[in-house]
């Protein structure tokens, strides 16, 4: 078991390419990385029936069990394993089975609101926001939900207009200000390659330097 040395958050709107970016930047890290989908921390909604669960606003911060996620990240950072919940989109609920997650060198938290919670942000070494145009995102969302998940088009459009879009504007887009790096157009190859190299250096233990978050403006100012 390892004590994680590098925690990355990847946020961005639905269909932005977060999952793709998180897979690509960690593709050579093998067992040294753990990817945590924020979706797995949707609240347990077993007390509601299916119809009620369909009405839940899954794009609002209140849909997530932040406390559990904080506990789990803290435990992983201390080198302890956690029992991570699993989420089933078909039934809009948590699965009964949890999976054991062991701490690894690199941890990636990925999801629409991955940069929303202050305490969780404070645990991250690198915060990324994947920024992709809204038209591209909705087209991808339609492809995924209608073609791959068998939902009907009307429902996807209604959900987009009633919750996905307004919540994006209210909570997701503003969380961009917590990002260290903004990646345009999802899985762009230059950004992905830069990040891959950085992560490889972290895992191999020969990262050039680590830094503290903040503005470096003053550093330059002194030398002027
Ligand atoms: P990504 N979501 C569902 O559609 N059903 C659920 O049971 C849980 C979540 C959607 C959620 C959000 N919202 O837009 C999206 N809605 O999953 C986030 N409405 O996932 O980042 O992969 O797009
Ligand atoms: Mg995704």
Report on the architecture of this protein.
The chain has 224 residues and is an alpha/beta fold. It has a single domain, classed as Rossmann fold, CATH 3.40.50. The chain contains eight helices and nine strands. The protein has helices spanning 18-25, 50-54, 66-77, 118-122, 134-148, 153-172, 189-204, 217-223; strands spanning 6-11, 33-37, 82-84, 87-88, 93-94, 99-101, 106-110, 126-131, 181-184. Strands 2-7-1-8-9 form a five-stranded parallel sheet, covered by helices on one side. Strands 3-6 form a two-stranded antiparallel sheet. Strand 4 (87-88) and strand 5 (93-94) form a beta hairpin. Helix 5 packs across helix 6 (153-172). The structure holds ligand UZR and magnesium ion. Ligand UZR binds next to helix 6.
């Amino acid at each position: 078991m390892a004590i994680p040395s590098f925690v990355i958050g990847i946020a961005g709107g639905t269909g932005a390419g977060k999952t793709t970016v998180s897979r690509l930047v960690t593709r050579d890290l093998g067992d040294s990385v753990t990817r945590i989908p924020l979706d797995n921390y949707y609240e347990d909604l077993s007390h509601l029936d299916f119809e009620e669960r369909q009405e839940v606003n899954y794009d609002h911060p209140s849909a997530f069990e932040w406390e559990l996620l904080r506990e789990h990240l803290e435990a992983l950072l201390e080198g302890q394993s956690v029992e991570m919940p699993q989420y089933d989109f078909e039934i809009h609920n948590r699965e009964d089975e949890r999976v054991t997650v062991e701490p690894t060198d690199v941890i990636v938290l990925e999801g629409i609101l991955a940069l929303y919670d202050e305490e969780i942000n404070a645990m991250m070494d690198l915060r990324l926001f994947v920024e992709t145009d809204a038209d591209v995102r909705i087209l991808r969302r339609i492809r995924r939900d209608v073609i791959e998940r068998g939902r009907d088009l009307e429902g996807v459009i209604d959900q987009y207009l009633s919750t996905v879009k307004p919540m994006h504007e209210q909570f997701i887009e503003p969380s961009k200000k917590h990002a260290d790096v903004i990646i345009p157009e999802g899985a762009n190859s230059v950004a992905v390659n830069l990040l891959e190299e950085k992560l490889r250096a972290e895992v191999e233990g020969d990262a050039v330097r680590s830094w503290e978050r903040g503005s470096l403006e003053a550093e330059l100012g002194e030398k002027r």
